[in-house]
Design brief:
The complex is a heterodimer of chains A (109) and B (113).
Chain A: E1 3-5, E2 10-14, E3 19-21, E4 24-26, E5 32-38, E6 45-49, E7 60-61, E8 72-74, E9 83-91, E10 96-99, E11 103-108
Parallel strand pairs in A: 2-11
Antiparallel strand pairs in A: 1-4, 3-8, 5-6, 5-9, 7-8, 9-10, 9-11
Chain B: E1 5-7, E2 10-13, E3 19-24, E4 31-37, E5 44-50, E6 53-57, E7 64-68, E8 74-78, E9 87-94, E10 103-104, E11 108-112
Parallel strand pairs in B: 2-11
Antiparallel strand pairs in B: 1-3, 3-8, 4-5, 4-9, 5-6, 7-8, 9-10, 9-11
Classes of the chains: A mainly beta (109), B mainly beta (113).
Chain lengths: 109, 113
Amino acid sequence: AQRVTQPEKLLSVFKGAPVELKCNYSYSGSPELFWYVQYSRQRLQLLLRHISRESIKGFTADLNKGETSFHLKKPFAQEEDSAMYYCALRDYNTDKLIFGTGTRLQVFP
Amino acid sequence: ETGVTQSPTHLIKTRGQQVTLRCSSQSGHNTVSWYQQALGQGPQFIFQYYREEENGRGNFPPRFSGLQFPNYSSELNVNALELDDSALYLCASSSGQVGVEAFFGQGTRLTVV
């Protein structure tokens, strides 16, 4: 079954601390994975995708096919990173996005 | 601003009623997907429309139906509303190409009482 798992509902860190938001997936075939972010009172927006291998706002995510993971990392958290983060997988057969349940990141000053 | 707009922003309906939600896709996008996001959950795929035809459907009953118009805007219709239909309904538009970003609207908050 295709599934995305985000084990942490809430992650709280202090400013300047490293952050790792976990994401594991289950998918038969080559997955296309994304991280979406939703800041307070704003719409869901794409943060990064694995095929781009880019760093956005200091965040990176590496696809590990052996561990079926796509964890989101940032070495030094900022207060403005506080938001809801969703990991998502694209199902090529239907072109739908399969989302995890999300992790709320709180960065304290 | 992504250009995907949804209306209305909030809606209250009574159980058993019918509701229509609307989505205007971003200019140049021919694919619209609808998602349901219940409280505390991630968005769940309802269905997708590509050039006015349904192009994929999630695990939602037939009382969830949709339309896409020649200008690629879209409607989501839900008949015989149930209390569990209360959720945030999200519309996303894209150009339909693999690897291309989908842009989300701000959502319609539906409350069924």
